[in-house]
Every structure is written in structure tokens, then in C-alpha cells.
Amino acid sequence: MKSDVVTIDNKGLGFKEAVEATKKIADFNGLGDKESLKLQLCAEEMLSMARSITGEIKASYWVECENGKYDLKMTTQTVMDKEKRHLLLSSASSHKNEAATTFLGMLRDAFEEAMLSESDKTYYELPDEVASDVVGRYIDDPEWDRYEQSVLKKLADDIKISIKGGVVEMTVTKAF
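-> C-alpha cells emitted (176 positions)
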């Protein structure tokens, strides 16, 4: 089963719809309130963290479910730099690029990493009315990013990051 694909932007548009799509999948599959909230929290942390790292204007989000395993998926396109790549891959459970599994994939990945350009670090925040926690306004951005990563890593069973050129795909898996 797959949810509708929701478009998210860095101004907060689509954020509530993505969380609502996650809740609908949980409800449809008969998850209890506690499990549903965990899944929704995974979605919120995933989208917030990915947006703060990539700073992208648009991303696509959806949920796939099969046999009690929920895959929260997000894809976006970005101008990749070394810092973004490092932050994204440090979020992954394996700390590896899932797009680099074959010999040609590893070769392409090594080439792309060598060609990365340095760019200024830019962070985007959700508007106050959309932000789910006031605490984030009092913590500097790098510290808040580490907090979001640790919350997501604690909640999720697995986090996979695939970087292919400027396309970033993130999958957060939670099984109940």
C-alpha cells in the first residue's frame, strides 16, 4: 500500500498534509494511538531534518506499507556539497550511500564526491505557526540538527540515504 505523494516546501507548505497522510496510513492499517504517534513523529523529524540539511524548496514525500513495515520516503533534488553529503550520510544507519552498491555505483559515487563544490551553509526553518516545538527556536541550528538526527535514529528501525548526483532519496523504516 502506498499513500498519496505530498509535495513539501521550505516554507512549511505540505508539512501538515504529509503528517496527515502518515496518520491515515497508520489508521487504515489499524495501528494503535501510540504506534501511530511514533510513525507521525518519524515523519516530522525526517522532513525537518532533511529540509534543514538540503535547504531545498521542494521535496516529495510518501509512505509505503507492507506486512507491518512502514517506509517513509522522501526525495528531493539539491546542489550537493561536501557538508550536505556528510550530514546526510551521517544520518543513515549504515553511514553509507545506498546508491553506491554496485561497482559502477561506487565508481560514480567516488567521482561525484571528488567533484563536489564547496558552498555556503544555509539553513531554513519552518514558520513559527508550523514548528512543532518551541525548543528549536532557542538552540542554534547545528545543535538542533544533531538533536533531530538523534531523535530520528532512536525512533526508526533503519534510515537509508541514497545520493545520486543532486538527487537525494531518504527512507525511514519503522516496523510494528
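The beta strands are 6-9, 58-66, 69-77, 158-164, 167-175.
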